[in-house]
User: Which sequence fits this backbone?
């Protein structure tokens, strides 16, 4: 059992890890075909995994409704939304699901007039959160936050016409902050991330890091 | 008032009109070279000077689907003069099939540094790539076929066809030679990492610099245990193919192990079914390791939504209703980062974030108590587990950074003296 649950996954991880790392350096058609096949497998697995995800979601909310836990009414809405969407998806504008997807059906209506605006609403909240987060951060309580406050004011002014009215140096300083210290920090982070990614990949390829394998009986 | 009214009349008086006419004629004569160049009043050249050195060759470092063509620039190159490349399978064919048509003031070798490097003379040659398969779309073509090309220069009705016939056969390459630098860097860094992994086994008491965000994990879990409230682990939006998500699941394993020891309640929210399945296995394994398999419930590792903003709404709802004592945001985040972290902050939870998404780092630093920045995300698993072999990778990362810093300083000094070869040495293709 340990061989099936540990050794074989480790061998697969090693072989595929080395193979796909080398694939990057081989431009030949066979190498491109291999990449395409592996990408297709990934998409197929992801397609089947949707059922596992849907089961998890529905099972969780069914348990919440059954046990009448706090906020179980929201779980009813999950079922309501899922059933309505599935129903209109199957109906497919009267052509049923075994035909090609029809345009302008209720299924599309639900997407364009319920899901998209609801998502946009959540996204729009971000503006308020940015304001509150900025307020907390820009209180000059330490030397670092004072530097941050000044840099932020200069960059913000440099990005709007009033900055140029105050002084033509303001946009120039803002550009310098973005192009020099900001970019340097960003590249520093990226270099560290790249090294970390290589280290993590090697740990997985050589089976040193195994926690992603999980366990079981 | 009267002067205002008379001005437009005087503007069109005969005398002024004559003066203005001469002025316009003079202006057109003076500006004509500029206007011709802009193409507004461009005249087609009456004769064309053909280019030279028309050559075809297999495009290096490719899958074997393209043929490269190059030729020198011509004095007749202009915006309304075109180069047309004709292709044929037979050397004595009619060359009627047009493979590509480009403006004669575009497509230079400078656009292909992976073939020609960064020579100054690259601007004196045109360069194009032809996909014979696309040109002969639908036709059965032998892979080993040689293709023949003719170059024509076209300006309006004027057309000259070069006598030179260039030929080449496309074949795939087994090695991308221009990625040699990348390969060598990867091999060097891998060798350093593997050396320190082996070395770490001999010297397990390795010094590690303090990472406050990871030291605070115990504090956060202890707080959750004391308060009897759950710990919420929030995955980022990327799937299992992302290295950030793999790092996040590794951290999840270590946190779950501690939570099992503390007998606290862990909830893991996911937006990807594969990540959810892996997370379930990881948490289950951690509970098994802690000797508390009974405490594990698969319902605590669940999918909330697969779309970005529904995910935010659902996780935000969980935070406000269940008010977890500690929130962990680990993985790759996008615009949802601030919404999640601000919602968590408003509930009074202790928050620890870890991400390599540098665009979201400022938001996490602002709203979370501790943030693992970039590489610390990858160091977390080793730091929390203290396993010697994993810790070896941390030392290797630091050594790698040291090497990169030396190269950066060296490159800066050389570039300051006009020596830019080190820049090209690290160029990515």
Assistant:
């Amino acid at each position: 059992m340990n061989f099936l649950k540990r050794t074989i996954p480790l061998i697969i991880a090693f072989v595929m890890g080395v193979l796909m790392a080398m694939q990057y350096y081989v431009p030949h058609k066979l190498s491109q075909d291999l990449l395409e096949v592996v990408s297709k497998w990934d998409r197929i697995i992801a397609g089947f995994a949707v059922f596992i995800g849907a089961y998890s979601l529905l099972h969780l909310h069914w348990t919440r409704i059954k046990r009448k836990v706090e906020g179980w009414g929201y779980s009813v809405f999950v079922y309501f939304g899922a059933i309505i969407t599935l129903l209109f998806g199957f109906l497919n504008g009267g052509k049923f699901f075994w035909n090609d997807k029809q345009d302008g059906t209720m299924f599309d209506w639900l997407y364009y007039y319920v899901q998209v605006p609801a998502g946009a609403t959540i996204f729009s909240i971000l503006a308020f959160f940015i304001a509150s987060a900025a307020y907390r951060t820009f209180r000059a309580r330490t030397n670092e936050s004072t530097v941050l406050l000044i840099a932020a004011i200069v960059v913000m002014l440099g990005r709007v016409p009033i900055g140029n009215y105050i002084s033509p140096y303001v946009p120039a300083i803002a550009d310098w902050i973005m192009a020099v210290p900001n970019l340097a920090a960003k590249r520093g982070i990226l270099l560290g991330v790249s090294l970390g990614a290589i280290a993590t990949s090697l740990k997985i390829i050589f089976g040193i890091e195994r926690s992603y394998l999980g366990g079981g009986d | 008032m009267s002067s205002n009214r008379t001005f437009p009349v005087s503007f069109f008086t005969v005398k002024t009109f004559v003066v203005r006419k001469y002025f316009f004629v003079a202006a057109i004569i003076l500006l004509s070279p500029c206007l011709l160049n802009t193409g507004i009043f461009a005249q087609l050249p009456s004769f064309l000077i053909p280019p030279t050195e028309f050559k075809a060759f297999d495009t290096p470092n490719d899958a074997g689907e393209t043929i490269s063509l190059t030729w020198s620039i011509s004095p007749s190159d202009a915006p309304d003069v075109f180069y047309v490349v004709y292709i044929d399978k037979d050397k004595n064919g009619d060359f009627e099939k047009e493979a590509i048509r480009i403006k004669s003031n575009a497509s230079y070798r400078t656009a292909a540094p992976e073939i020609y490097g960064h020579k100054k003379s690259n601007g004196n040659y045109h360069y194009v790539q032809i996909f014979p398969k696309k040109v002969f779309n639908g036709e059965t073509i032998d892979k080993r076929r040689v293709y023949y090309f003719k170059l024509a220069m076209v300006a309006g009705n004027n057309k000259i066809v070069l006598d030179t016939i260039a030929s080449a056969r496309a074949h795939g390459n087994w090695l991308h030679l221009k990625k040699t630098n990348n390969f060598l860097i990867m091999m060097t860094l891998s060798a350093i990492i593997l050396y320190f992994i082996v070395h770490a086994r001999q010297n397990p008491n390795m010094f590690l610099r303090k990472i406050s965000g990871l030291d605070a994990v115990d504090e956060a879990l202890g707080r959750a245990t004391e308060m009897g409230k759950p710990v919420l682990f929030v995955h980022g939006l990327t799937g299992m193919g992302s290295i950030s998500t793999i790092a996040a699941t590794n951290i999840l394993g270590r946190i779950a192990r501690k939570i099992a020891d503390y007998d606290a309640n862990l909830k893991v929210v996911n937006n990807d079914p594969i990540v959810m399945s892996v997370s379930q296995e990881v948490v289950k394994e951690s509970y098994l390791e802690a000797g508390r398999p009974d405490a594990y419930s698969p319902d605590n590792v669940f999918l909330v939504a697969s779309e970005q903003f529904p995910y935010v709404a659902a996780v935000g709802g969980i935070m406000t209703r269940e008010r977890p004592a500690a929130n962990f945001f680990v993985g790759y985040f996008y615009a949802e980062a601030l919404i999640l972290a601000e919602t968590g902050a408003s509930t009074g939870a202790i928050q620890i974030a870890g991400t390599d998404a540098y665009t979201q780092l400022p938001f996490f630093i602002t709203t979370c108590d501790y943030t693992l920045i970039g590489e610390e995300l990858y160091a977390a698993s080793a730091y929390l587990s203290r396993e010697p072999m994993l810790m070896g990778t941390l030392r290797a990362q630091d050594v790698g950074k040291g090497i990169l810093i030396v190269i950066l300083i060296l490159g800066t000094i050389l570039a300051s003296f006009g020596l830019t070869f080190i820049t090209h040495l690290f160029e990515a293709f």
